Every structure is written in structure tokens, then in C-alpha cells.
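Box S2. Input/output pair 1.
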Amino acid sequence: MADVKIITFNCTGMANSIRRTALFEIFRRLPAQIILTQETHSKPEDEAIWAREWAPRTVDFNSAKNTTSYPRNGVEIFINDPNIKVNTVKKDLEGRILTADVSIHFVDLHLINIYVPVEKNSAKNEIFDSLYPYTISSLPVVMAGDFKVVDQPNIDRLPPGDNAERRKALISLCNFFQLTDAYRDLYRDARTYTRRQGTSHSRLDRFHISREINPSNQLTISSTLSDHDIVVLQIKNIQNTQRGKGIWKNNTKIYDLQSFQN
């Protein structure tokens, strides 16, 4: 298969039409077929307008349904290649999770776009726990977004720190689905950061991928329109998923989710 490039980018808002025009121009020029954005501040009533502005390319939205206050959330999947077909789409009700099964170069992928809240640890754990039903797929998985926690605080944060409690739920999720950090697969202990605030730097924006996916390169592109970098993952080869009988595990965490109970 040909190379596939996927981008994740916390754009810190695109509700302003002038800012959105500038972002869309950047997206169109980016060397990627798929662009996952977070913190877009979109509202349901904006989606038709934004879709027309992005046309003839396609885009899938998940806007926060409760927009009585300023919409802080919003995640989108922008398709930058007319040959990509988007199949099943799922989303939560808070504008934080958006998934899509896509067909690209005769290969199917399960994409997960996530925006984690800037809130206390329990809220972060709650959203990671809620990801289980969105991550279940027979397809190779690419989970990307702004995770608000780092995997290895000693090298993913400057100055180094420790957030073991905050990342525990994410580690459990990745272990359960056998997802790995694409950057660490490529560069092991190399240091890089995707968000800078004063003297504090961290690698909050990442790709977690399933074992069928072989990354060949990952780079960051700085943007004056956000305090987050644009992160580009290049995939060289995707193996067809081979499923044997294996062992079926029942994730009881989903029983506590309101959406499951409904």
C-alpha cells in the first residue's frame, strides 16, 4: 500500500470565521490524507456551514450538545483525499470522542479522535474508561488526540514530573487493546514536546496504534494558531488483522456507562 499520513492537532478553537479560514488553508496544504482536530469549539448549528467551507472534501463532526455556555469541546475528522471512504461513525454526547471506520488504499482503519478535559484526575479517568466501547473493533486501530496526560513523565515532560495516578486508566486501556505509543515505537527514549506553555513543555498530543500498524515516521509542525504542535504520523504498511480463537475478555467497566445502560 502507499504511505498513509494522519495528523492530530489541537487547534484551540475555530469558531471565528477568519481563524477558521486560515486553519482550513493550512489543512489543505498539509501532507496528510486525514486530519483529526480537537477543541474546535463547534456547535451543532455550525456543522453545515463548516462542511460547505471544507467542500468538496468531507468532514465528520462531534460537537457538544449542551451549548448554553461557551462550547469548549468539539472534535472533527477532516478527509483530505477524495479516494477515502468513511464508513461507520460513532460519537459521545460531550463533543470529546469521535470514531470512524475508513477505507484507504484498499485498507480499512478504525480511527478514534479524543479530546480529554482539563479537569481533575477523576474526569480524565472517566473519559479513558468510557473509551472501551469506542475502541472495540476488528480493524487496526489508530487512537489520536490531546490526552492531557503523558505516558512517561520523566521524558515526556519538561521539567520532568510524575502523574502515575492520572495516566493509570489510559495505561489500562492501551494494555487491554494492545495499543502502543507510535512515537516510542519509532524513537524509544528520544525527547520531543507538542505543547509549550511558558517554561513547561509536554507531549500531550499522541498516536496510540494497534500492532497491525507499522509507523515509518512521526514529526511535529509548529503553528502560530495554537499552543499545540501539529503532529504527523506516517504509516508505511498495515497488516491485515488476523484473528484466531483467542480468549474473550469481558470488560465489566462498560456496564457502569450510562450509554450502555440505556
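Box S3. Input/output pair 2.
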Amino acid sequence: MDRTGFDPARFSNYLKGLLKVRGLTMRKASLQAGLNHSSVGGFVRGRRPHRDTCLILAEYFHVDPNEMLAEAGYEPMPVVDRSLIDANDFAPEVKEFAAELMRFSPQRRREIITGLHMVLKP
């Protein structure tokens, strides 16, 4: 482990496990997550992902974002702590919309949400 807290072997094994469980190649996971075709391969070979890339990978693999950040040697981010979210606080139409969004790839969801932000700007 280096001074940043990043352990390349640990992160590599973590990603390999996620890939194996889902039956994915590194290239396919990279492309489906909306990253460069060789991104996941680079991380498996020891390159450290940027914090934002960790969040993209966490969304793609459906894992806790803070878990992905920790595996990459980053401090957790309270803003992505899913344990603080209570789905019962959301209106039924918000829950329905969220369920519909999950049908799309992470990249397509980001595009939809970006479009919504543009529409909702005053």
C-alpha cells in the first residue's frame, strides 16, 4: 500500500471479483459503464481510478459507492452514504420514476438525469 492508501493488488482483486460474479470482461464492463474501453483493464493492472470514476464504477456494479472508494484508497463521502436514505420519505411517483430509471444503463441514466437538470433550470 502506498502513502495515499491505495493498494493496487487489493483494488485489482476487488474488481476481478465483481467482474467474475457478473460474468463480464474488462472491456465490456468499461464500455457499459460509459468509460474508455481499456479503463477497467488498467485498474485491474494497478492503475488507480479517479474518485469520480469510482462513483461511476459503483453505480455500474451496483455496489455501495463508499465501498468502492475505500477499495481504491479514498476516504468515504457522506453525501453518497446510502444508509442515510429512507425510501419511505419519497413520494410514490418518485419511487416509480427511480424504478424506471434502473432499467437503463448507468451511462443512459446519467444522460437522462443531465437532460432533466437542463429542463428544470429556471
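Caption for Box S3: The chain is about 60% helix and 0% strand. The chain has a mean pLDDT of 86.
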